Amino acid sequence: MCSFISIFGLPISSYGLMVALGITACIIYCYFQVKKHPEINYISLIFAALWIALGVFIGSHILYGITNINPLIKLFSNVEKYFSDFWLGLSAFGTLIGGMVFYGGLIGGAAAAVIYFKKTKKDCAAYCDFLVPCIPLFHFFGRLGCFFGGCCYGIECPIGFTYTNSIVADANGVCRLPLPLIEAFFNLIIFIVLFLCYNKRVMTKGHMIIIYCFTYPVVRFVDEFFRGDDIRGFWGALSTSQWISIFIFAAALIYVVAAKLKGRRILNRKNAP
Q1: Per-residue b/e over 139-151, b at no fewer than 16 CB within 10 Å?
Q2: Helix and strand totals (H; E) in the chain
């Protein structure tokens, strides 16, 4: 809707602004939550956040590159063409890996967090439980940024919004389903559910992520059918994100079933609804 916002005469990316607000919201959440949970050290959280940010950055770009795997293969198969113009080749490569995919960032950030907590001998399960609600909270603002920036747009729809200055030219001039707003709403609901479950100790330690793995992948799998862009990559009839959603949901289901068979508790029976 509005890719750039003027602040004191300076054009500011609306997506970047929403990302900054998302980071701020997560910091505020952690600040107030850490007071209630003495087992969590805020200094460790700060260092973990830096590692997570690095993991998110790397992972999101890698998955974006995977969605462009065919153009990347074509680029490297003709690499001799770019020997005479290094900057042209670098620009082409940057275009193919320059975007960001949420699931890539999620996987990269989670891996970075686990590595950090294991290396520093922190209670990985406790810290991950603490941080899980930050995922949909941050994603809520990220999807607002998508809406304002005009990316990740929905299909043509008589009820919705018409972009006029989207950063993606194909989105403009057509009334579209406000899919980023819809996903932002569901992310907010997931955050509230996770927030309540964590503070009421509904799950046993280390299992808060299970709730997220059973909720967001369903939302993402369904809303991918209503996306109007096709740059995110398809593998057969389903998009890359839909395949990842299936994998995450299935992995969580297998884990729960295996835990049940082995007699391990996932729900805290004293606090479970």
Answers
A1: bbbbbbbbbbbbb
A2: 10, 6
Q: How far does the chain reach from its first CA to its final CA, in angstroms?
A: 41
Residues 113 and 52: beta-carbon distance below 8 Å: yes
d(CA 206, CA 266): 9
Name the β-bridge partners of 10: 7
SS3 content of the chain, % helix, strand, coil (to 5): 65, 10, 25
In whole angstroms, what is the distance from residue 260 CA to residue 254 CA? 10
User: Which amino acid, 259?
Assistant: A
Q: Which residues, including other chains, have CB under 8 Å from residue 188's CB and lie 6 or more apart? A: 136, 137, 140
Number of C-beta neighbours around residue 220 at 10 A? 21
**pTM for this model (two decimals):** 0.85
Name the strand (E) or helix (H) holding 108: helix 102-119
- Beta-bridged to residue 72, according to DSSP, are none
CB-neighbour burial class of residue 226 (10 A; exposed 0-12, middle 13-18, buried 19+): middle
- Which residue's structure tokens are 């109007």? 228
**Cα gap 273→262, rounded to integer Å:** 23
pLDDT in tens, 51-105: 999 999 888 888 877 766 666 666 666 666 655 555 555 555 555 555 667 888 8
Structure tokens that stand for 17 in this block: 């602004």
Q: Assess whether pLDDT exceeds 70 at residue 160.
A: yes
Amino acid identity for residue 154 in this structure: G
Q: Contacts from 79-82 at CB under 8 Å and sequence distance 24+?
A: none
